Amino acid sequence: MSTLKLATFNINGIRSRLPILLSWLEREAPDIVCLQELKARDDAFPIAEIRAAGYGALWQGQTSWNGVAILARGSDPVESRRGLPGDPADKQSRYLEAAAHGVMVGCLYLPNGNPQPGPKFDYKLAWFERLIKHAAKLYESGHPVVLAGDFNVVPTDEDIYNPRSWRKDALLQPESRTCYQRLLAQGWTDALRHRHPDERIYTFWDYFRQHWPRNAGLRIDHLLLSADLAPRLEDANVGRWVRDLPHPSDHAPAWITLAQKSSAPKKAARKRARGKS
């Protein structure tokens, strides 16, 4: 393949949205997929159907809520971590990490945090701190890494149709936004914003108040690239057509394409070395 396509999609119930997932996989053929909100136990994950679509998969389910998965087209992802480090008592299924197609992928479903203030918001911020700490190690490892998923953070007022009615929501709190900026400050590139610096681009539209027909959306699904991957970014966008299907998730898949790392310089160096000998 000349490019690598990687996507993140909060599926909002993999059993009920399986036809949508399979239709999207067939039409878009992403090479790597991060899924969130499986809302299914491990033994209810539709691995047979996903394999029939040409994908290997890793997943970590949970009854009724949460759950994350990583799919790889034509291969099996190689698991490197199950669960975010830093709190052994945390049993929520929100983080899965694997290698696929030459890239390390961290698939995450960051806590929503509502209502705030309160214990759910405290958990969100504590989880975010653990993510920041782990992400720093991934970034410093030198491996090509993508952190992809539903971050449940609207980074700026430019990432929401109208912030006024959302000011008390956990997604827009200064603490949430500061955590996201601290993450980016490690060196990560926010692929969607980098590709569309001045565009109102959304990944989530609430089911209520005609938010989808009015394009009253939020950008809360992000793909962050490590230093060596950022120069390889060719394109990034949102598969809005998926949100327009019957009985959709309230999210649409966000995706990027990366240029494959060329081996030409190494070949040229070997030729030059042979010429000198």
UniProtKB/TrEMBL annotation:
Q: Where is the signal peptide?
A: none
Q: Which Pfam families match?
A: Exo_endo_phos
Q: Which SUPFAM superfamilies match?
A: DNase I-like (SSF56219)
Cofactor dependence: Mg(2+); Mn(2+)
> What stretches pass through the bilayer?
none
Segments forming domain Endonuclease/exonuclease/phosphatase: 7-251
Per UniProt, which keywords does this protein have? Hydrolase, Magnesium, Metal-binding
InterPro entries according to UniProt: AP_endonuc_1, AP_endonuclease_F1_BS, AP_endonuclease_F1_CS, Endo/exonu/phosph_ase_sf, Endo/exonuclease/phosphatase, ExoIII-like
Q: Which family does it belong to?
A: Belongs to the DNA repair enzymes AP/ExoA family.
Any idea what this protein is called?
A: Exodeoxyribonuclease III
Q: Which organism is it from?
A: Rhodanobacter caeni
